Structure formats: structure tokens, C-alpha cells
Amino acid sequence: MKILAIESSCDETAAAIIEGEDSPQVLSNVVSTQIDIHKEFGGVVPEVAARAHIENIIPVIKKTLTEAKTELSDLDYITVTEGPGLVGSLVVGVETAKAISVSNNIPIVPVNHLEGHIYANFLEENKPEFPLIALLVSGGHTLLIFMKDHLDYQIIGSTRDDAAGEAFDKAAKILGLGYPGGPIISHEAEKGNENKYKFPTIDLTPQATRNPVGFLETPEESLDFSFSGLKTALITKVKQLTSDGNEITAEEKADLSASFQKAIIDNLSQNVLRAVKKYQPKTFILSGGVAANKNLRETLEKNIKEVSAETSYLIPPTNLCTDNAAMIGAAAFYHAKLKKIDDANFAANPNLKLNN
Ligand code: KG4
Ligand code: ZN
Questions:
Q1: Short-list 253, 241, 263, 248, CA closest to 195
Q2: Alpha helices, H only, 226-342
Q3: 289 lines ligand 1 (CB under 6 A)
Q4: CA-CA distances (angstroms) from residue 108 to 64, 88, 100, 212, 346?
Q5: What's the longest Cα–Cα distance across the chain?
Q6: Which band of pLDDT confidence, cut at 50, 70 and 90, is reported for residue 356?
Q7: 323 lines ligand 1 (CB under 6 A)
Q8: Which residues have C-beta under 5 Å from ligand 2, the single-atom ion?
Q9: 182 C-alpha to center of ligand 1: Å?
Q10: Ligand 1 atom 2: the closest Cα is on which residue?
């Protein structure tokens, strides 16, 4: 089975060729990033992103076909990110894929961007085993997902406000460090002291209550996240440090970055450990752009080993954590293999849910 995959949900125009019979292999994986274009605005500008996708999409597809020495006539399927994402960006990928599909008579497989992030792990030699728990941490999502089998997603925890990647991006903006925030904050954090400033770990477990008979009822520990309070705490700290009229120093910036990064990791880790203890998965997988964070990768590995020695821990290589088309191809591979293709009247859907 040979698949052309297209991804254009945010600010990367990407195409890949995936091949395999029992499991998916990457033949080529091309990503054209727009980071330099959006940097000057301090974030992704949707209209600008859509125009850049229009310019890049055909050259990126041609490049991936050439690198994989593949002709359109060799393809069994074409797959594309249906959503979620920026509507103007998604439309470029979806309509290009539909045009190639119709004109070459190749069946099309719509894929959810979030399942793509999870399936990046199935491109590795060491395949995840079910049941598994995935922590998906990206610019737009923070989700804990329980999977009993392929393409079966149960969301067991999610953010009530900002996503983890968004928190990194906002923190970098507050500290005047640029965009995208995750890689910049983690680079800055290497020079700082993570114990210098204390930022909170948020526990959204409801308080215990007394039932009418008078017994104390203890609710289950919450697996939900909240990151907006961390952002406010950072703003308050910066205000305090600059109340004398001085700018924050380079040392303070590094310490704030390290302490803020630690807080995000502590918040993620608290709920990951709760979920692992409760569900006892065979595999834990980390995915999404924030999974590129070295400290997060290492801390979760160490902590999970301590609470569940039987759970194996998988993370894709960094280039498959951030947005790419190979991961979309990997998800499409399992849709095609298990004959779960829902392409009836599909269109770009900016609000697509994982378990639609
Ligand atoms: O998955 P992704 O490429 O795009 C979305 O689907 O959102 O994730 C992008 C997010 C951004 O918020 C970026 O700041 C964050 O991933 N990110 C990181 C790192 N690299 C990217 N966050 C923390 N540490 C990193 N090294
Ligand atoms: Zn993504």
C-alpha cells in the first residue's frame, strides 16, 4: 500500500509518501515551515498562512513524490488533514487532495490532525501496544487519551483553558523572547535556575463533600489541566521584578523561563501519573509539538517508570513531534488497513473532534 499524505492545518505545508503492508514506513517527508514569515507578527496570522500554503503546496507535493521516486499512478490512497486547525489553511490541503483524487481516480482518506500526532508513534520500529495512554500536547491541544484499540479514542483529560504549547508561546511573548515560544523558552531555560521562582501546580479535583447522611464523599482525582493561571502568575512576577522601573535582566529571564517550564512539566506530570496509575496501560506515548521538549520527555519517562514499571514509554523523534505529513499518512494507513474510511462529503472542518 502506497499513500500520499498532505498536511496544512496551521503554519507548515507538508507532504509525505508512506508505504507498507503490515506497518507504515516513511519513504519521504517534506515540511515547508512558515515560522520566519509569522515571526515578525509574534504568532500565526491565518490569512498569511493560507496564502503561503497556496504558494507552497504543489512544490512540496512534487518534492515528496520525487524524493520517494513515486508517480501518482503508483498511489493506492491519498490522505489529508480534515481538521482541526485554521480553516483557510485546511481548505488549501483538502481541496488540493480532492483535486488529485478526482483527476487520478485515487481514493481519499480524511484524517484528524490529532490522530496524526498519536500515529506518529506507529512509524517507529517499536510499535505501541494496547491499551495505551497518549498525552497530546501541542499549540492548540492538551489531551490525555485512552485507546483500547486502533482508531478508538476516549478522552480522559483535557485543558479547561490554554493549551500547553500556547502557554509556552504566551510566556515567550511576555518575556519578549519571540515566536514560537516552546523551543525558545526551553533554550533559555538551560541557562536558568528552575527552582528560583515558584509557579503553581493546579489540581482541578473537586473538594470532598458530605452526603445527606453525613458521610464524606471523595471525588475521583481530576485529569483535567489549566494553564491560564500560570500565565497570570508569570505576568505578576514580571511586574514585581520591573516595579523599580528597570527591565528584567538576562539572568531573571533565564530563571523565569526555567521555572515556568518546570511548572508546565509538573502540571502535565501530575495528571499523567494519575492516569497511568488508574488505567495501567501497556504503553504510554507522548505526542504533539511540545513533546519536542527535552525536559518533558525525560521527566515523564523517569516518573512513569517509578509508578508503573510495566508501562513502556514511547516518543517519536523530534521531527515527527511537530507538524508533518508522515504522521497523517501513518493514521491513514490504519484507516485503510482496517477499512475505516469515512470520506462521505468531507470538507475542511476547523473544529473537528477526535471521537466524531
Ligand atoms: O504540534 P505542533 O507543531 O502544532 C500544533 O498542532 O499546534 O505544536 C506547536 C507547539 C507550539 O506551541 C510550540 O511552542 C510547541 O509546540 N513546541 C515546544 C517545543 N517545540 C515546539 N514546546 C516546548 N518545547 C519545545 N522544544
Ligand atoms: Zn499539530
A1: 263
A2: 228-241, 250-279, 294-307, 318-321, 326-337
A3: yes
A4: 18, 20, 9, 57, 10
A5: 73
A6: low
A7: yes
A8: 138, 323
A9: 6
A10: 289
Instruction: Report residue 147 as a C-alpha cell.
Output: 485507546
Query: Under 8 Å CB-to-CB from 252, ≥6 apart: which residues?
Result: 241
292 CB under 6 A from ligand 1?
Answer: yes
180 CB near ligand 1 (under 6 Å): yes
C-alpha grid cell for residue 271?
495528571
How do the residues of the chain divide into helix, strand and coil, expressed in percent and rounded to 5?
45, 20, 35
Q: Is 165 in the pocket of ligand 1 (CB under 6 A)?
A: yes
pLDDT of residue 345: 80
pLDDT tens, residue by residue, 141-165: 999 999 999 999 999 999 999 999 9
CA neighbor of 108 nearest in space, from 338, 325, 345: 345
SS3 267: helix
**What are the strands of the beta sheet with 132-137, ordered from one edge?**
154-158, 142-147, 132-137, 283-287, 312-314
Would strands 216-217 and 283-287 be described as parallel, antiparallel, or unpaired?
unpaired
Q: Which three cell numbers stand for residue 347?
A: 470538507
pTM as predicted: 0.92
- The single-letter code of the amino acid at 288 is G
Least distant ligand from the CA of 164: 1
- Does the beta carbon of 316 sit less than 6 angstroms from any atom of ligand 1? no
Q: Which of 138, 174, 315 to mutate to test the pocket of ligand 1 (most atoms within 8 A of CB)?
A: 138
What is the distance in A from the centroid of ligand 1 to the CA of 137?
A: 8
Alpha-carbon dihedral sign for residues 258, 264, 266, 269: negative
Percent of the chain with pLDDT over 70: 100
* CB-based contact 160:224 (threshold 8 Å): yes
